[in-house]
Amino acid sequence: MKHLLLIATLSVLAVPASPGQQQTQVLPEAPAVAPPPAVLTMLPHPESARLLVAGQANIILQAHAPFHSPYAGPNSLLGRGEYKTSLIGTLYLGARLHDSARFHTDAILDVESAGGRGISEALGLAGFTNLDVVRNPNLGSTPYVARVQLHQSIGLSRETAPVAAGYFSLATQAPVRRLELHAGKMSLPDYLDLNAIASDSHLQFLNWTVDNNGAWDYAADTRGYTYAAVAEYYDHAFTARYALALMPTVANGIDLEWNLRRANGQNVELELRHNLLGKLVAPDRKGTVRVLGYVNHAHMGSYREAVDAYLAGADAKPDIVAHEHVGAVKYGFGLNLEQELTPELRVFGRMGWNEGQHESFAYTEVDQTISLGGDLGGATWSRPADRLGVAFTSNAIKRDHQNYLRYGGLGFLLGDGNLNYAREDILESYYTLHVTRGLYYALDAQYVAHPGYNQARGPVLVESLRMHLDF
Predict the structure, then answer these.
(1) SS3 (DSSP) at 153
(2) Closest C-alpha to 167, from 36, 52, 56, 58
(3) Is the peptide bond between 459 and the residue preceding it cis, with omega within 30 degrees of 0?
(4) What is the pLDDT of residues 409-438, one digit of tens each?
(5) Residue 31 phi/psi, 5° resolution?
(6) Residue 6 in contact with residue 59, Cβ under 8 Å?
(7) What contacts 297, CB < 8 A, 6 or more positions away?
(8) For 373-410, how does the pLDDT look when each residue is reduced to its tens digit (9 = 90+)?
(9) Are 459 and 431 in contact (CB under 8 A)?
(10) CATH architecture of the domain covering 2-470
(11) pTM, entire model
């Protein structure tokens, strides 16, 4: 009850006297799609200003009823009913150090606080139901620096075009051909694997493996951040990206390994902007395809070695930590698609694969994933700032990973003590309601079949109420 009172109180405080989107948002008054006529932030953010001061708060109440659970382990989703509330607040600060279309420099500083907890302490699901949840709730809600970085844009042509100012780049004009450099503390999904339909847990979907590619074990600490350098080359119809990032010292750890010879995460992405359906839709409909590849070097363990040692009697149970090797390599690929069908209707798809032999280390326990879905803008029913979304995701792990969990091994998220394997299938739907300037509510439902890849448990329906505030 106290969580519901907190939400109600914040809602009242958030409404202005007169009425008037993680883990990666464009500033609300300059979204990637045509803005609705409503004012979408509590306070104005003039694009001509040299300083950025903005923020957001996201409160999510999640609950599920009791579900079928003949057994459970240390890392299981709890079979009894439960509810939990998460709260994340971010202060976005930025300054234009040098402001010109050909040579633009920004300084970025974001301070964040992540409080509350996820259902079952964020355990028991590969596709966890709340992207805002920190995977180690014992870190507490003490504010921390989420991002601190320099951004440099270097023009390579005289032709310029308008660009949307965002939290990580304050420019409003940029050369069509340019080099963008980012260095400092960041989250890799700020720049890679973006999707206009499924990347934002504040206004869109909530599930980890809908908003991100679950098979992309991207370099990050347990809060989702790392120190990295990202280089982007923009041209008329494509962008190429490369990122070099620090890996955590242990799986799901808060500390990062600063010796790049011992551990590092390397990522490449090619983005092509083109109408993917050709003459099937209007010629001005936007489409994008992104192809991602990554290679992680870290002190990681081998699922097969852990299982073989257990079967040989060397270990009392499979223990991935006992079979870690310096410089172990984990690699994978991803495909990311989005396409406008009408001015209000968009569809997306994601596919991901990794080699699956080495332990899931930094994001979640997924070796293969596929997601399909779409969203519909509320202008269709005279609510231009509202949005309805539906997505289906199916996650899988490979045989060595399956055997590790079947014999009682524990990952950093999963471990029922046994495993009757099946793919983890998730159907998610949300409706985001724009209440007034800067204030949104959303209802979200996620139906999860075979939680933690275990067909002996579940299914489970997780329901959510979200309040989001932009100021």
Answers:
(1) strand
(2) 52
(3) yes
(4) 999 999 999 999 999 999 999 999 999 989
(5) -75, 170
(6) yes
(7) 247, 262, 263, 264, 265, 327, 328, 329
(8) 999 999 989 999 999 999 999 999 999 999 999 999 99
(9) no
(10) Beta Barrel (2.40)
(11) 0.89
